Amino acid sequence: MKNGLSGVRVGLAAALAFGLSHATFAATELTVYTAVEAEDLKKYAARFNEDHPDIKINWVRDSTGIVTAKLLAEKENPRADVIWGLAATSLLLMKGEGMLHAYAPNGLDGLDSKFRDKSNPPTWTGMDAWVAAVCVNTVESDKHNLPMPSSWKDLTKPVYKGHIAMPNPNSSGTGFLDVSSWLQMFGEDGGWAFMDQLHQNIDHYTHSGSKPCKQAARGEVAIGVSFAFRGAKSKAAGAPLEVIIPSEGIGWDMEATAIVKGTKKLDAAKTLVDWSVSEKANKMYNEGYAVIGIQRLAKPVEHFPENIPQAMIDNDFEWAAENRKRILAEWQKRYDSKSEPKS
Amino acid sequence: MAGMRHRSGTHGSPLRRKSSTDDRAMRLFILVIAIYLVIALAFPLYVMFSKSLENSQGAFVGFQNYLEYFNTPALVYSIQNSLFIGVVTTTITVTIAFILAYALTRSRMPGKPVFKTIAMIPILVPSLLPGIALIYLFGRQGLINELLFGYEIYGPIGIVIAEVFFTLPHALIIIITALSIADARLYEAATALRANRARIFFTVTLPGVRYGLISAAFVVFTLSVTDFGAPKVIGGDFNVLATDIYKQVIGQQNFEMGAVVSMVLLLPAGLAFVVDRIVQKKQVALLSARAVPLEPLPNKRFDNLMLTYSIIISIFILGILGVCQFAALVKFFPYNLSLGFSNYQFDLMDGGGWDSYFNSIEMASYTAVFGTIVVFAGAYLVEKGQGLGPIRGAFQFLAMLPMAIPGLVLGLAYIFFFNAPSNPLNFLYHTMAILVISTIIHFYTVSHLTATTALKQMDSQFESVAASLKQPFYRTFLRVTVPVCTPAILDISIYLFVNAMTTVSAVVFLYSPHTTLASVAVLNMDDAGDIAPAAAMGMMIFYTAAGVKILHYLLSRGIEARTQAWRVAVAK
């Protein structure tokens, strides 16, 4: 009996020992919320630490919708010090709630005027543009005899029926920028009419913005409405993909940076935001993104279509943020009950 | 039979008088655990309910959110969809589980322990995993998608298959238990009366297990209605209540509506729970002291039939796992089928990388250790404690409640409650502790029932004798109760560990940068379209849970040999 008991004790001790976490110490630790692609996070922190080794970044990474939800949920009691790499539309939402600390970083003047909040001092600054694109799987489109689409309107042709996936704007930032850009380009009525037609061809809506492109890469669908960065990455990974920039123009959003109001580490936060608009940072963004905050530094990115800057529409972020709730409700009413039970 | 006597003559018996310090210590302990249940369960649920009556500014708006909910067709369809999934899954799972349980208890087919072990495997994997396997099997590029004859795997078909996989072991355990307690004399009597096999089956076998079947049906129904993993991965555009909560909260930051859907989701789960309780009360002891255990007779045709059936079910389960392992190793499905470990570079993916895996092990270990202590001590105090009648009653109610609370609902309630700045406990938010606290609560009921059952088997005279010898209760507890109940304690800890490894629903709202979890990583990787790494991480969870389970088996065999010899004596 005694031995049996000590066996349990050993088991418990082992279980506890398993759990001992290893704490690391640095001068200052910043909790940074981000929606930057996971594969880039280590690089971003490492480059920053080359210049500021005394500040340790603790990433909270999730998709745009989730990070936004987290931040809003924590409104009364913010956990983040800095937001580095979240959609400007989301930051505008937070600005409206008074959650951001206005700050003019060193180097603000170097930024393209689109890439900053209009208030002075700004509550957020832009990093890079994240643009809509259509990923087309060449193997699958050959198999189904699909012509290569070149415009958004092409996607409404009956030949594509059941071959298109796109992100649900209710959960995906990419999905929302698509919808908001269609409404801006085609007008309110024209936009919804376009989506009504497109809806006929959609096979399914996904929760995340990168998923349609990754599904196209795997041949799970032939065409994924997604964003250019994702398409370029999958193409680089060897997927039989063509990344199309539709001729009418493309919606876009910025990845942007902001300080969360009430942070106890304001100095370190400012240091990070200063660095985030620096030339070095912009060159780093340029490794994945074709359009960046300091556009004169931008070099072409492999697998990225070249006509992106010209195709980007004159996106009205304030309008998008103000109308977001209404647009999403309307979208849900029209398309989200696709799977209603047949009775 | 010892349990029959417990509580008889609780008061007034001279043997029962204890020192008052002892009483007070016991009351203090039971109060502490009761307070834990109130803070970690009752308060958050209350806060969530009140949230469903507020607008986004926090002003009270009565049932306006509910009105809005029921006027949004897209949301209301989800209720129908959820019920549809629940009913179909329940019918299929209970049927499959019943036949399998019948094969395992009433046939003489070979390899029973193997088949039983295989059928238990789904407990060791997150519910997202069968969904991933189904995509590889029946998706557009699926290995055998011709078998669907053009039907779509994304949607109700996929959800139901994944839920059947996920719920099968739960139903099987209950039905096996029900089928095991048969009295051979009834069958002898039936045979003597010249009843044929079919008649015996319908007049003796089925009535004997009807409560087990009802119980299994409700467990499966609740699990499949509240599960979030399968519909998230394979549901396509088929909305159910569980995914609606996620979409409302994560996609639209509409916390109030999330709270409303949560309240709606509580209804079917709560109803199933109440009905099950009522049915359980009706169940009378089938097994009298004179019962004779039923020994199935060999019947070649029947045994072969059952063997074939068990093999088919086993292929289904192992096949799902095998496909996932294959998916995890293939480099770029379907265009590059060479094998390698590139999908195991979790650090390049969403979900927190390898840290998530180690966090999960840490979280599961804490949950197993602290959960077992809290649950067992709580059950002991409720069973063997004196006085504080109403508090013990309330405790018992609170202990049963988590069974009816879907994990997503619990997680959302925790955000509302623990992240309120006015809450002195809000330092817990974003810590490992809150994950452990919520997971213990989420799986409290089954653990509590296991502990209570074990404790009921112990004669309450142990306590009486100890008291008369002037031993404090904790000494009896540590010297007698705990060693005697070691198998149950081990069962509870392994149950908590495995579930903490695989659970997604409650923790998906609660993890933080330092506490990402493997199961949530599976979800997030799948969400981003990285389905192969998601399968790889899911299999890591499986191997870990299986390893711990095997360890548990070896450990409990060793311990049982040493501490449970008395059971043989008692049985005689």
What can you see in these coordinates?
The complex is a heterodimer of chains A (343) and B (572). Chain A is an alpha/beta fold and 343 residues long. Chain A folds into two domains: 28-129 and 253-302, Periplasmic binding protein-like II (D-Maltodextrin-Binding Protein, domain 2, 3-Layer(aba) Sandwich); 131-251 and 321-335, 3-Layer(aba) Sandwich (D-Maltodextrin-Binding Protein, domain 2). In chain A, 42% of the residues lie in helices and 18% in strands. Chain A contains twelve helices and ten strands. Chain A has helices at 2-19, 38-51, 64-73, 88-96, 138-143, 173-201, 211-218, 228-236, 266-276, 279-286, 308-311, 317-335, and strands spanning 28-34, 55-61, 82-87, 100-101, 124-137, 164-167, 202-206, 223-227, 241-244, 252-260. In chain A, strands 1, 2, 3, 4, 5, 6, 7, 8, 9 and 10 form a ten-stranded mixed β-sheet that branches. In chain A, helix 4 (88-96) crosses helix 12 (317-335) and helix 6 packs across helix 12 (317-335). Chain B has 572 residues and is mostly helical. Chain B folds into two domains: 19-49 and 346-572, MetI-like (MetI-like fold); 64-335, Orthogonal Bundle (MetI-like fold), CATH 1.10.3720. In chain B, 70% of the residues lie in helices and 1% in strands. Classes of the chains: A alpha/beta (343), B mainly alpha (572). At the A-B interface, helix 1, helix 2, strand 2, helix 3 and strand 7 of A face helix 3, helix 10, helix 13, helix 20 and helix 22 of B.
Task: Supply database-style keywords.
heterodimer, A: D-Maltodextrin-Binding Protein, domain 2, D-Maltodextrin-Binding Protein, domain 2, 2 domains, 10-stranded mixed beta sheet, globular, disordered C terminus, B: 572 residues, mainly alpha, MetI-like fold, 1% strand, disordered N terminus
